[in-house]
Amino acid sequence: MERITFKNETGLTLVGHFYAAPSKAIIIMTHGFLSNKSSSGRFDRFALKLQQNGYNVLTYDCGGYGESDDTAIHFEKQVTDLRAAKQYSQQLGMEKFAFWGHSLGGRLSLTCYDTDIETMILTGPVTGAIAYQHVDNFSKEQVAQCESSGSMIFYVDDPWRTEIVLDKQMLLDFDQMDQAATLQKVNCPILIIHGTEGDLERELTQITKQGLDLFPKSTKLIELDGADHGFMEQLNEIETLGLHWLHEHFQLS
User: Fold this and answer.
1) Contact (CB, 8 A) for 192 and 222
2) One GO MF term, please (predicted)?
3) Across the strands, what pairs with 166?
C-alpha cells in the first residue's frame, strides 16, 4: 500500500491509499458520511483482499475528511473528489474501472457513473432522498447553528482529524436527491447489499426497493439478515460476495 496525494479541480489536495497490482483494472472505493478512506477498517481489509486477487485499489479521503485538505463538506464537492480520483487512476495507466461505495459513497458512485465504469458494488447505499434527521442525530442546536452560520461542526473519532465541518447545503443534499434522475443514466451491473437491522438501514433498504425498477436490469439486491448499516459482523460475507461479483463482472483481462 502506498500513500498518495492528488488534487481535485478546485485545487484541494486529497489523500489516498493505492494498492498496486499487476493489472490495468482498478476499483475506486468511496467512503460514507463522516468517515474516511479506511471506512472503519472495512476498506483497509477489502482493499488488501482485492489486491491479492489482482485488482488495483484506490481508497481516498474526500475533501474535509481524514487527511485531505479542510473544507466544509457537501455533496457536489464530493462528486468533484470522486471524479478527481478516477482521473488520477487514469494517470496511473488504469484502463478498466469499477466503483465500490459505502452509504453516501454509494450515492456518489451512482452520480459519477460514466460509460467506462464496468460495475459497482454498493453497501448500505443512499439511493434516494432521505430526511437528514434520519441520517444522524442532529440536535436542534446544531441545526440552528448551521442555519445561522452556514455550517456545523462534528467532533469525530478519527486518526487524522478531530472535527468535520458540515456545510448547511448537505442537509438539503440528503433531502433533495432525485432518485430517477440519478439512476436513469446508470448502465452497468450493480451489486447492492443492504441489511435488515437498525432504523437507518431499514429505511435505506426501502428507498432502494422503491426505486429498484429504475436500476439496470443487471442489478442484484442482497439483504443480509441481521446486518445493520455498519455491516461489521458481516465483513466475511461481503468480501466473498464482492469477489464473486467482480470475478463475474469485472474480469482482469
Assistant:
1) yes
2) monooxygenase activity
3) 73, 152
What is the grid cell recorded at 122?
Answer: 454498493
pLDDT tens string 41-57: 999 999 999 999 999 99
pLDDT in tens, 172-209: 999 999 999 999 999 999 999 999 999 999 999 999 99
Pair 211, 142: CB distance under 8 Å: no
User: 63 and 83 in contact (C-beta within 8 Å)?
Assistant: no
Here the cell at position 156 is 469525530
pLDDT (average), residues 118-131: 97
Question: What residues are paired with 28 via a beta bridge?
Answer: 58, 99
> How far is residue 214 from each of residues 3, 21, 109, 189, measured CA to CA in Å?
38, 34, 16, 13
Q: Can you name the CATH fold of 2-129+180-249?
A: Rossmann fold (3.40.50)
Q: What angle do CA 233, 68, 40 make, to 5 degrees?
A: 10
Asked if residue 20 lies in contact with residue 47, where contact means CB atoms within 8 angstroms, the answer is no
**Residue 100 CA to its chain's centroid (Å):** 7
The structural domains of the chain, with segments of one domain joined by +, span 2-129+180-249
Q: What is the DSSP string of 100-169?
A: EEETHHHHHHHHT--TTEEEEEEES---S---HHHHS---HHHHHHHHHHSEEEEE---SS-SEEEEETH
* Amino acid type, 6: F
Cα gap 33→233, rounded to integer Å: 20
Q: Name the CA radius of gyration of the chain, rounded.
A: 17
- Residue type, position 84, single letter: A
Partners of 223 in the beta sheet? Answer: 194
